[in-house]
Amino acid sequence: MLIACPKCGSRFLAEVRPRPGERKTWFSGPLRCRDCKTRFTAKTFLLSDLKWARCPRCFRMDLNRWTGRTYDPPLRVALKTALGAKRWRCEYCRLNFASFRNRKEIFTFSRWRKFQT
User: Fold this and answer.
1) For a surface tag, which of 34, 43, 63, 91 has the fewest beta carbons within 10 Å of its beta carbon?
2) The whole model's pTM is what?
3) Rounded to whole angstroms, what are the CA distances from 93 to 4, 27, 56, 60?
4) Is the dihedral of CA 101, 102, 108, 111 positive or negative?
5) Domain ranges of the chain
6) How far apart are CA 56 and CA 60, in angstroms?
């Protein structure tokens, strides 16, 4: 899902804890933009996104591959890759993980540079 900040349009977001009185559901939750620090609530789940791999930490779907030459994965990730899972890396939170699903978007550094400025 392509969630963007309503103030600046950035997609560099973080999931945050709900405040007292706020409700977090399976389909929406509070988010904070890491660029302009705006806090907002957005829909974070679509049924159409179930077929795509997403980062388990930050839920982004623009991913790269990792090779495993310089990274020794944990046992559960190694087991998944041995069973045929694809190796994905989230460049935003630097997490290597394995998933049987395909990626929705390919990570590009030009997009990353937009988030850094």
Assistant:
1) 43
2) 0.62
3) 17, 22, 10, 9
4) negative
5) 1-45, 51-117
6) 8
